[in-house]
Amino acid sequence: MAATCSRLAARGQLCSFTSPQKPLHLQDNAALPASLRSSSFNGTQLTQAVLTRGVSKAQPGVVAPRAVAAVSEKRKDAFGEEKKLAEAPSSLLKKGPDGWTSPMCEKFEKVIRQVQDEVCAAIEELDGKKFREDSWEREGGGGGISRVLQDGNVFEKAGVNVSVVYGTMPPEAYRAATGSTEKNGAAPGGAGRIPFFAAGVSSVVHPKNPMAPTCHFNYRYFETNVPQDVEGAPRAWWFGGGTDLTPSYLFDEDVKHFHQTLKDTCDQHDESFYPRFKSWCDDYFMIKHRGERRGLGGIFFDDMNDRDAEEILAFSTACGKAVVPAYIPLVAKRKDEPFTEEQKAWQQLRRGRYVEFNLVYDRGTTFGLKTGGRIESILMSLPLTARWEYDHQPEEGSEEWKLLDACKNPKDWV
């Protein structure tokens, strides 16, 4: 059911509605076969699709309406009017009949904005350059803050976005996402538009030095409400997320440190998490037309609601806070290592693989592009530069071959 609900919000036009009731627990999706868990429509696709509007570091205080009107820029797309703000409000959630009131939503927004601040602060400290910041809101509900550091001293490009979006999913979105054959694409029981909330923090960091790895992470929360005119329509909530590493050159001790940090975080909550989510990550980041993974994995989970929401919130929070100790020391260690033009060219080839996965297979990116999301936030994950060569084959036994072999044949790092 979580997968079904995730399809519904993928094209949701934002609008206002009343506060949701307490959602129902769903079954544990971890018990499903990998082929179903990683199917083309699930919580990842839904949540990332509605979150591709960007967000970043909070600034103290709420911008006064008059000040916003004076400095704002407006952009209208399939999701309604987007208004640029002078600075980020203290909260992206509105109160009252036009807002969305949910204790978990409020808690999760605080978590993801704190994670964003911590990650950005660590990157800025290492790089010496500051992030550019864009804040925006949507008249229908929610908004975000996009933060990007580009052409830095250490990082070629680093983006850390937070989005908090709520609205309703129209019948045609339900039909497109589920393949429904009911007349007018109606939801079960004749449901029309279904209220939804989605929030998340997402980041991709591309260092300049080919010896330093790329890192990606995303943590999100989603919930739906029951339409007022339909009894028994979908009501659900779930968490999802993950952190993964994409090096151009293989340093076993670096990958082991990264995976060990994630495993230690998982083990504090449930010792079954790391092996399950590590395998899931290896499956998700497969570039099928190449027969190789995008990188060397990490953890990935989705549609998670098999236990108390507060427990999963605590786990998601811990995972977000583990990004800095898992990743930043690796860049600090490798950022000044010497490299050749050939090694830089290999990094650009691996960046090409990164682009291929994101534009062809990544559910959040592809669905965001199809549904009129905020394009700058959607494509934030792409590197500044990439390279493609015809039939490039690294020499067997070379350092490049070792990295490619590890991408084709995932191993247990801890």
From TrEMBL:
Lineage start: Eukaryota, Viridiplantae, Streptophyta, Klebsormidiophyceae, Klebsormidiales
Assigned EC number: 1.3.3.3
Protein name per UniProt: coproporphyrinogen oxidase
SUPFAM superfamilies: Coproporphyrinogen III oxidase (SSF102886)
Organism: Klebsormidium nitens
Tagged with keyword Oxidoreductase: yes
Catalyses which reaction(s): coproporphyrinogen III + O2 + 2 H(+) = protoporphyrinogen IX + 2 CO2 + 2 H2O
Localization (cell): Plastid, Chloroplast
Pathway(s) it belongs to: Porphyrin-containing compound metabolism; protoporphyrin-IX biosynthesis; protoporphyrinogen-IX from coproporphyrinogen-III (O2 route): step 1/1
Keywords of the record: Chloroplast, Heme biosynthesis, Oxidoreductase, Plastid, Porphyrin biosynthesis, Transit peptide
